[in-house]
Amino acid sequence: MTRRIYYTDPACRTFHAIIVRSFEYEGRPAVTLNQTAFYPTSGGQPFDVGRLGDVNVLDTIDVDDDVVHVLTGRLAEGSSVHGEIDWPRRFDHMQQHTGQHVLSAAFDRLFDNRTVSFHMGTDTSTIDLAREAAADEVERAVDESNRVVWNNCPIAIRFVSAAEASRLPLRKDPTRGGTLRLIEIPDFDLSACGGTHVSRTGEIGLIAVLASERFKGGSRVTFVCGHRALRALRDYRDAVSGTIRVLSVLPTELPSAVERLQVEGKDLRKTIGRLQDSLAVHEAARLLNAAATSGGLRVVIEVVEGWDAQGLKAIASALIANQNVAAVLVSATRPSFVVVARSGDASIDANKTLRQLIERFGGRGGGRADLAQGGGFDAPPAAIVTVAREMLTRALV
């Protein structure tokens, strides 16, 4: 059984230990130690990395009562080793995990809204609340959380039996029995938790909620703490200042400027669509005049430059408004977009032809016997045209 130093001393950065076992874990060198400060993935908190002697610790895994350290190289069983954890990574995890306790406790105390799950990601963390939280409730919980942070409250660790825990006002019921490790912020939160935490709430720095959305009947709240909050502020600053500079507006004018651009963009798309439909008729006439005749049909198989998917479909629709027409139109971009169409009096199956092209070049799509379309054709447009012409030639013989 590995003695877990982080249970009683989360701030421990270096330690000495004896290698109890040296072996391979899933094909990689690994060891267990008589004691360790390395934290294995558990309770929503990721594992620690660092060094044992001259080799790197790549992963830390909880296996039964032991902590397995996955390494870049082998270490001798029975030898003494110096361990050093990656402190910036650990401290970041401590800030996020302790911040989660404070934020969850705020939602629980203010609104009786329990946290049902917690996930710590690389850039942000989330808590899932049992009930949906309104925007003003989120803001009040954030304010209350940061009040606790700035009060720099002490954070205590203690161990109790399951019987003792049953008589304590824990924020949530423990998921295991036996001896329990409790994390306590006096007069604010008491929770059973095996994770690593800062020694005072002030070390969290700041708790900032970046987003809140409905999720499985409750709310998912995305938040950052400490250095992550500072990084997020810088990212938002750079994004906002860049947008302000491009749009030449004041910060307070940014939302209305973006809304105005959205309205203008929607209007422009409608105008472009109308003009494209009108121009498609003329483009279809040009293509039809140059079309070859095969099997009694005028066949248009072309790479069409300067038209998007909607435009190709409009041209195809204009083509098959005429009699005795079969068409395969391919965009000049790669991956290509393809439209296959035929007039009502033509015998070819547009959908079948498109499926054959998909089998040959990949992509996806579908449609009807008279009109089918697809995208993602990762081949030179000219090659698609060549194969399509061969297919139609055989079909029309």
Q: Could you please describe the fold and organization of this structure?
A:
This protein has 397 residues and is α+β, with helices and mostly antiparallel strands. It has 3 domains: 3-85, Elongation Factor Tu (Ef-tu), domain 3; 91-234, Threonyl-tRNA Synthetase, Chain A, domain 2 (2-Layer Sandwich), CATH 3.30.980; 276-396, Roll (Diaminopimelate Epimerase, Chain A, domain 1), CATH 3.10.310.40. The protein is built from 9 helices and 21 strands. The strands form 5 sheets. Strands 2-3-7-6-5-8 form a 6-stranded antiparallel β-barrel. Strand 9 and strand 10 form a beta hairpin. The model has no long low-confidence stretch (mean pLDDT 93).
Quick structural summary:
The chain is of the alpha+beta class and 397 residues long. It folds into three domains: 3-85, Elongation Factor Tu (Ef-tu), domain 3, CATH 2.40.30.130; 91-234, Threonyl-trna Synthetase, Chain A, domain 2 (Threonyl-tRNA Synthetase, Chain A, domain 2); 276-396, Diaminopimelate Epimerase, Chain A, domain 1 (Roll).
